[in-house]
């Protein structure tokens, strides 16, 4: 089996191809990103300084000049610390899907308390969100946690709008999180609505669904811009964690995005055992590319050791969703389906992708804002929009 000579993506990764040096297209995309954003270079830093200057200018006279989504995880906690260091006045926003670990909740409290940052929390009805998760399990698709990702985005936009803020900061880093393989997973507002309509029982009332029109409203009409500082400056998760532990007695929860139980179930159990999908390859490949981990070590972890499942996690999952051993085994053994089996906006977007991007670039003013927004929503098209 061919494995990329630089990272650990192998030939089973969707959409992969290797060049004459045996390096995969995802590593090359990363190179192009670094080139485009001048990540970690003085030029990148200057670009970010310019953006921060604008955020401060636009925030004059307002209570907050930006909004940041917090989860209690490494990236968002550290991002918040940086925002304060840069002299910004953020409002922290948390979307509570009611599956948080106690560590995550405590982390949010510790960091915000010490930095004296206000928190805006949106809590979804737990019966309703469990019904949405259950719908995804019944649909047999891998994007179990899509509802959380999309809702966080929607809630950040709502909070920004409520306080007249024009900037939403995100702790995303394409360097530490890697590039999602094209066509592997996909989700959008229509996908969530249709799956829930087909398999759900509890009406969708409190879930903050971001459909296409909501997205367009935030980005095009309200002109709220997403900013990802780690795309411009160098960022090390390891150093961030050390700092957070020292400054805030912040606690690590053992893996990428595992601060939330439903995410942990998706990554370590559901996707791995039902679809044979190991989401660790993203962060492992990223760690190898940036030299944090030896390639051999990552290959060994990825191919020889299954993901660690915290004790009691599967029992919690079963109890929350009222799953018996039989019903869980039925879910795990039912046919594997993908987003292609259900209605999404994808086909519409594929047809008009270039037109939409050109239009958006035309009417917005910050160079990368629309691209990042489009990336956030349709991350699978990441290659299509690059020069
Ligand atoms: Zn590679």
List the helices and strands and how they pair.
Blueprint: H1 25-37, H2 42-58, E1 66-69, H3 74-85, E2 90-96, H4 102-115, E3 119-123, H5 126-139, H6 146-162, E4 167-169, H7 174-177, H8 189-199, H9 212-221, E5 225-227, H10 237-248, H11 261-275, H12 280-289, H13 295-304, H14 313-320, H15 325-333, H16 346-363, H17 369-377
Parallel strand pairs: 1-2, 1-4, 2-3, 4-5
Helix pairs in contact: 3-4, 3-10, 5-8, 12-13
Bound molecules: zinc ion (ZN).
Zinc ion (ZN) is lined by residues 4, 6-7, 9, 23-24, 26-27.
Please characterize this protein's 3D structure:
This protein is mainly alpha-helical and 387 residues long. Helices cover 52% and strands 6% of the residues. It is built from 17 helices and five strands. It has helices at 25-37, 42-58, 74-85, 102-115, 126-139, 146-162, 174-177, 189-199, 212-221, 237-248, 261-275, 280-289, 295-304, 313-320, 325-333, 346-363, 369-377; strands at residues 66-69, 90-96, 119-123, 167-169, 225-227. The protein has a five-stranded parallel β-sheet with strand order 3-2-1-4-5, sandwiched between helices. The longest helix has 18 residues, at 346-363. The protein is globular. Residues 364-370 and 375-387 have low confidence and may be disordered. The chain binds zinc ion. Zinc ion is lined by residues 4, 6-7, 9, 23-24, 26-27.
What brief labels describe this structure?
387 residues, mainly alpha, Rossmann fold, 5-stranded parallel sheet, 17 helices, binds zinc ion
């Amino acid at each position: 089996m061919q494995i990329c000579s630089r990272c650990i993506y192998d030939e089973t990764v969707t959409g992969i191809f290797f060049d004459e040096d045996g390096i995969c297209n995802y590593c090359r995309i990363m190179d192009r990103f670094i080139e485009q954003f001048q990540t970690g270079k003085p030029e990148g830093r200057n670009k970010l300084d310019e953006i921060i200057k604008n955020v401060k200018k636009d925030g004059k006279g307002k209570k907050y000049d930006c909004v940041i989504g917090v989860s209690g995880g490494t990236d968002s906690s550290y991002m918040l610390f940086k925002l304060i260091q840069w002299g910004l006045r953020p409002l922290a926003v948390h979307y509570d899907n009611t599956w948080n670990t106690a560590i995550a909740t405590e982390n949010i409290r510790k960091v915000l308390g010490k930095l004296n940052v206000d928190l805006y929390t949106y809590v979804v009805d737990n019966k309703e969100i469990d019904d949405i998760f259950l719908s995804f399990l019944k649909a047999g698709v891998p994007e179990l946690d899509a509802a959380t990702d999309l809702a966080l985005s929607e809630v950040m936009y709502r909070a920004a709008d409520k306080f007249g803020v024009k900037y939403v900061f995100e702790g995303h880093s394409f360097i530490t999180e890697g590039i999602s393989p094209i066509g592997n997973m996909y989700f959008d507002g229509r996908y969530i609505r249709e799956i829930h309509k087909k398999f759900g029982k509890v009406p969708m009332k409190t879930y903050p669904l971001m459909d296409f029109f909501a997205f367009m409203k935030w980005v095009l009409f309200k002109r709220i811009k997403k900013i990802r500082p780690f795309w411009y400056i160098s960022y090390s998760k390891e150093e961030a964690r050390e700092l957070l532990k020292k400054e805030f007695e912040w606690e690590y929860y053992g893996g990428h995005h595992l601060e939330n139980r439903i995410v942990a179930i998706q990554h370590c159990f559901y996707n791995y055992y039902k679809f044979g999908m190991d989401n660790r390859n993203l962060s492992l490949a990223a760690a190898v590319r940036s030299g944090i981990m030896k390639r051999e070590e990552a290959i060994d972890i990825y191919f020889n050791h299954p993901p660690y499942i915290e004790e009691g996690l599967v029992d919690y999952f079963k109890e929350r969703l009222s799953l018996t051993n039989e019903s869980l085994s039925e879910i795990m053994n039912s046919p594997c389906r993908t987003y292609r089996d259900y209605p999404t906006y994808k086909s519409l977007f594929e047809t008009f992708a270039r037109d939409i991007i050109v239009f958006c670039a035309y009417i917005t003013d910050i160079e990368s804002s629309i691209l990042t927004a489009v990336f956030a929503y349709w991350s699978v098209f990441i290659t299509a929009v690059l020069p």
